[in-house]
Amino acid sequence: MAVSARAQAAADRRRQILDAAVRVFARQGFHGCRVSDIADEAGVAYGLVYHYFRSKEEVLDTLFLERWDVLVATIDEVAAREDMAPRDQLHVIASFIVDSYRYDPDLMKVIIVEVTRAANSFGAIHLDKIREAYEGIAGIVESARTEGSFKSGIPAEFAAMCFYGAIEQLLTAWIFEVMPRTDEEYERAKGLVVEAICGGLESAQNGAAGSA
Q1: What is the pTM of this model?
Q2: Domain co-membership, 49 together with 61
Q3: Is 43 in the same domain as 94?
Q4: pLDDT computed for residue 41 by the predictor
C-alpha cells in the first residue's frame, strides 16, 4: 500500500526531530537540555516537537526502544542459527554492537549514558527490555553448556552479563576517548572481547580442539 505524501512528510519530520535529539542529548546530556534545544537543532518550531512527542522523556524512550529492538532482533536471529558455533554467534553479536557505535556513536552514547547506565531513572524503567538482550545471549550460552562446549559450572545468565558488560565497557572507553577510535581498533576489539569471554567459558576439551 502506497504511503501518501502527507504521511511520508510527517514521518520524515518526526525522524528529523529524533535525529536532532540524538545530537543534542549527546552534546548536552539529557538533563542538560530542553525541548526548545531539540527544536532549534531540528530547525522546527518549538510546538512541532510536542506534536509528535509528549515530552523529551518520550523522545529518549523512542530512541532507545528503536535501537534496542534492533539489537534484540539481531540476537534472536543469531541464536536461531543452528549452523553456527556459539563462539561465532557471540562474535556476530559483538560485531553488531561495536559497529553500531562505529557508525552512530552519538546514538550509542545516548543509549549507554542516558538509559542503560541510568539505574535510578531510565534504566529502571526499561529494565525488562534491557533483560531481553541478556536473556537472548544467555540462551546461546545455555545451549553451549548443554552440548558441552561451554563449562557447566558458569551460569548462562552470569556469562551473558559478563559478555555484554565487557562490550559496554569498551563503548564507554571510546565515548570518553580513553581508547583509540580507529577501524583497526574496532575490529580488534570484536575478537578480543569474544576471546576473553569464551576463553573462560569453553570447556577444556573444546578449548583444546579450538586451539589445535
Answers
A1: 0.89
A2: no
A3: no
A4: 98
